[in-house]
Automatic annotation (TrEMBL):
<dbReference type="Pfam" id="PF01553">
    <property type="entry name" value="Acyltransferase"/>
</dbReference>
<dbReference type="InterPro" id="IPR002123">
    <property type="entry name" value="Plipid/glycerol_acylTrfase"/>
</dbReference>
<keyword id="KW-0012">Acyltransferase</keyword>
<feature type="transmembrane region" description="Helical">
    <location>
        <begin position="203"/>
        <end position="220"/>
    </location>
</feature>
<dbReference type="GO" id="GO:0019432">
    <property type="term" value="P:triglyceride biosynthetic process"/>
</dbReference>
<keyword id="KW-1133">Transmembrane helix</keyword>
<keyword id="KW-1208">Phospholipid metabolism</keyword>
<comment type="pathway">
    <text>Phospholipid metabolism.</text>
</comment>
<feature type="region of interest" description="Disordered">
    <location>
        <begin position="476"/>
        <end position="497"/>
    </location>
</feature>
<keyword id="KW-0443">Lipid metabolism</keyword>
<comment type="pathway">
    <text>Lipid metabolism.</text>
</comment>
<dbReference type="GO" id="GO:0016020">
    <property type="term" value="C:membrane"/>
</dbReference>
<protein>
    <submittedName>
        <fullName>Glycerol-3-phosphate acyltransferase 3 isoform X4</fullName>
    </submittedName>
</protein>
<comment type="similarity">
    <text>Belongs to the 1-acyl-sn-glycerol-3-phosphate acyltransferase family.</text>
</comment>
<keyword id="KW-0812">Transmembrane</keyword>
<dbReference type="GO" id="GO:0005783">
    <property type="term" value="C:endoplasmic reticulum"/>
</dbReference>
<feature type="compositionally biased region" description="Basic and acidic residues">
    <location>
        <begin position="478"/>
        <end position="497"/>
    </location>
</feature>
């Protein structure tokens, strides 16, 4: 026992100095906003590994296809029916679907999708037809189509109602909303070697098996404890530094000091996730006294955006460790925290927002108008309250690269600790951030229209799908008036003049 204790003591003493030097160097680089480039080299190496794995998968599929060509006709169908699965789509290199999906970097194809939506239901019936957001006049003309009794008597066929029947069946099988609250799938021909990939690609060849096992050991035995250590150090620094800044009297010096502390803190936390961040149009970053709005994929969005500029945050007061962190942040800079009852009071929220924005010394306030996390493929309805505040709105588009890990937080399935564990055992967080030109509310423009206009700008820049639906459908049922409006619109299309 004494020998074991001696070995542990010597090992700890040998590792202590390098660890302290590493943390001090990390803090110094974070405070300066600099990087040695190790994470970017790491990401480039991962891409080569992923490409090697993809090539092995394609070779295996090609060999499997050649083997199947020698089997009697109907063998594949029999195997498929015996397994109770649908017939697989060809993934050979000659398959144009697979080939195109592999070429389009950043464009994801869900291999399980078998539905092509020609008629997509939206909260507003005028948005029901595919492509209507780009051709509103054409869609409105289509919606206003009516039939006379003579036309129906002469031309009506039972198939006239098939488009509505199909739209309903498609919505039941794979609707446009609930699919946005599931993990984003990778391309058909891609594999990122994560254990959560449910295709058993690691058993295709012994080389891939060795690579997969090496990646498992790297992520769980090296990266995970290292990231936890860095995260703990970052949180400890945040608590201590903001506590000390809180004693400094209100002045320009306190604002400068708080800005340095916040940037350093969030840069350390970003490094704890091996994040590789690319910022575009940095000259358009939000200015003091403004409102910054962005699409929302994960709580990490706050960390990603706060590594470049300091924000004031808005949200509900929490207890536990999160509450301690909120109080620490509030001591150093102005943030808006609401009690549970106040959050539902839209007037009180708007008034506090206006008061914050009216002070030019306050940092820009960061808001996620969707109100919930969406899976990095779409942007859903923006709440209008954030757009009732006078002043410029600074839109920001955020897009994560799912090849290195799924950044989406499905709060209905995973707790915050489970989610952070998944993030810290993924390869990395790779993200692009686009700062967009400030937008001002036009004269006579409603807050709802203003919110939709900003949402379209963010969706277009981030390559995201612009949806009309409220993200709160993640937790609640559709409003009855939505159903009534759809029924009314369908009746108009069948109405006889």
């Amino acid at each position: 026992m004494a020998l074991l204790w001696t070995i542990l003591s010597v090992s700890a003493s040998l590792l202590l100095t390098p660890c302290l030097m590493f943390l001090v160097g990390l803090m110094f680089l974070a405070s300066m906003g600099k990087s040695l480039g190790v994470r970017r080299l790491y990401v480039k190496f991962l891409l080569k590994i992923f490409e090697y794995g993809r090539e092995n998968i394609e070779i295996s599929k090609r060999q499997s296809q050649i083997k199947d060509d020698y089997e009697p006709k109907g063998t594949e169908e029999c195997k498929t029916l015996a397994n109770g699965n649908a017939k697989p789509v060809s993934d050979s290199p000659q398959d144009p679907v697979c080939e195109n999906s592999c070429r389009q970097d950043g464009v994801l194809v869900n291999s399980s999708h078998v539905i092509s939506h020609d008629l997509i239901l939206q909260p507003d019936p005028e948005q029901n037809f595919n492509g209507i957001q780009n051709d509103t006049d054409k869609a409105k003309e289509e919606l206003q189509r009516k039939s006379s009794y003579d036309t129906i008597k002469r031309d009506f066929e039972l198939s006239d109602c098939f488009e509505f029947v199909r739209a309903g069946v498609e919505a039941i099988i794979e609707d446009q909303v609930t699919s946005r609250f599931e993990a984003e799938e990778l391309r058909v021909c891609s594999w990122n070697l994560l254990t959560r990939t449910n295709r058993r690609y690691e058993f295709i060849s012994w080389r891939l098996t060795v690579i997969w096992m090496g990646g498992f050991l790297l992520r769980y035995c090296f990266l995970f404890p290292l990231r936890v250590t860095i995260c703990f150090f970052g949180l400890l620094w945040t608590l201590v530094a903001t506590f000390l800044v809180g004693f400094v009297p209100q002045s320009s010096f306190k604002r400068i000091l708080n800005n340095w502390v916040m940037l350093t803190s969030f840069r350390i936390l970003a490094r704890s996730l091996s994040s590789v961040l690319t910022y575009h149009n940095v000259e358009l970053m939000p200015k003091t006294g403004g409102v910054c709005v962005a699409n929302h994929t994960t709580p990490i969005d706050v960390v990603i955006l706060s590594t470049m500029t300091t924000f004031s945050l808005i949200g509900q007061r929490h207890g536990g460790f999160l509450g301690i962190l909120q109080r620490a942040l509030a001591r150093a800079s102005p943030h808006i925290w609401f009690e549970r009852g106040e959050v539902k009071d839209r007037t009180a929220v708007t008034q506090r927002l206006k008061k914050h924005v009216s002070d030019p010394n306050n940092p820009p306030i960061l808001i996620f108008p969707e109100g919930t996390c969406i899976n990095n493929t779409s942007v859903m309805q923006f709440k209008k309250g954030s757009f009732e505040v006078n002043g410029a709105i600074y839109p920001v588009a955020i897009k994560y690269d799912p090849r290195f890990g799924d950044a989406f937080w499905n709060s209905s399935r995973y707790s915050m600790m489970q989610y952070l564990y998944m993030m810290m055992t993924s390869w990395a967080i790779v993200c692009d951030v686009w700062y967009l030109p400030p937008v001002i509310r036009e004269e006579g423009e409603s807050s709802v229209s203003f919110a939709s206009r900003v949402k379209r700008v963010i969706a277009k820049q981030g390559g995201l799908v612009d949806l009309m639906w409220d993200g709160q459908l993640k937790r609640t049922k559709p409003k009855p008036e939505w159903k009534e409006r759809q029924q009314e619109e369908f009746s108009k299309r069948l109405k006889v003049e």
